[in-house]
Amino acid sequence: MNKYLFLLLALFVSAMPLLAQSNAAERAARDLTQGALADFDARRYDAALEKLLEVEKKFPGNPANLNLLGAAYTKKKDYAKAQTYFEETLAKEPKFFPALFNIGELLFLQRRYAESAAYFENMLNADPRNELLQFKVFLSQLQVGETEKAKKSLDRIKYPSDTPAWYYAQAAWESKRGDNKKAREYLTGARYIFGPKTALFDETFEDLGIKLR
To answer: Quick one: fold of 112-208?
Structure first.
């Protein structure tokens, strides 16, 4: 697992309401959250879960923490519990993007690609310039063999890109066509330009079994 935490950790953290530092309990909860993120980075998911559950006891119902609990259960492949926590997050904050995204990601991780394509496409309708959503729609379509739709989705991802999405989408396309050499060239370019920001996309390739290193 990388420091961006299960697809979008950077967004999780930036979206997370900062805990006030007015008393010891709040400082302790903040420290537990930071420790949980370090545990995610080291793939210590049980340890991360223990800390996040402790935060939930101290400050119940915080959307960001509920979402992180869902992420922890996702990494443990307990998708039913993950779904429950993502839904609890959205009950508290209906437009919380990380939780909305993660519900689609659960479909993707369970190889329900037709459903994940439709889910992410629906999200994309509300946010048509979001490169990560474009990427997930494309990958989902590619996995179910909707080549024509996938090519249209691929062409929708702009270049130059603000994220590694364009490069990884091109790499996935070339890998699907059997040209792994060209696919690796795209990944080399992405890693040169975006550095550690590619870790999120590498994890998606790992989930799909795409091995291009």
So the answer is: 1.25.40
